[in-house]
What we know:
The protein is an alpha/beta fold. It has one domain (6-220, 296-328): Luciferase-like domain (TIM Barrel), CATH 3.20.20. The protein has 14 helices and 12 strands. The longest helix is centred in the C-terminal third of the chain and has 18 residues, at 226-243. It is globular, with a radius of gyration of 19 Å.
Amino acid sequence: MNNRVALYLQDAHELRDGLDYVRYAEQQGFESVWQAESRLVRDAIVPMAAYAAVTDRIKVGSGVINNWTRNIGLLAATFLTLDDLAPDRIICGIGAWWDPLARNVGIERRKPLKAMRETVEILRRLLNLERVTYHGEFHHVDGIELDVVHGRREPRHVPIMIGATGEKMMELTGEISDGVVLNYCVPPEYNDRALEQLDRGARKVGRTVDDLDRPQLVVCSVDEDHEAAIDSTRELLTQYMAQQPHIAKASGVSAEVVHEIQSILGWPATKEQIKQAKHLVPEELIHSITASGTPDEARAKVDEYRVHGATCPILYPVGGDVKLLIDTFAVN
């Protein structure tokens, strides 16, 4: 079993503290750091640039940006710029976003498969420094290219990884991407079906699932006190069950539980609402879909995700001591 491991940061920590965590993760042998971009709180690109600037070896990924809000030319230029800052260390994780957030900012997420296919094709060609004309349903570009006058005028090696959840997107990911960012808040067994879909897509283009990298987000709460670790995770899951019901569905959570949590939580949810609803998240669910508990318990659960096909766990620290989590999974 490989010992690849990555760190995931969202918005639970001050950004400057995040720089310290990333440097420490690099010292401890972590392969990569991934910055979230989900709620309207912290974009991924600014932290990615900061992480890249203060490190030497660790890879830096977006985990994940969406394919709706950045013009395709700007998207390519952004990742070219990040690659200038940290050559061959940047990963583009991209996903289809989710409602109600997309809808609430005026975006109609129609034909998500076609939209993703167009985005990935043009992005890859632009990063390959091709001159691109493309008229699709979602993207229209005429003779554009990354206009590198000063610096490295050479194709950029930026892996494009799709954050897929549904089966059709998973199959498309196997066909068109360099890999998948498997979702969190799912049991390890969820991966078995996901790998089947990835393989189906990969075989359309003469590959297999083994040709795809498969990092996976894993909610991870580590504390020497088992109960403290579990309670931190319970609060996170309360919010996710309400705001991202597609993840709840993939986790096998009953619609009744999700509806009851949603009836308590507003948008955005307050800390008081989360505390009021968190008792609805059963402890068996926490153990099923997260790596929470003492260091030994967390390591054992993360290994289950590896057994079920995750190539590199991306550990999302919720609560507790982030450096303890990094030490728990240190490679060095």
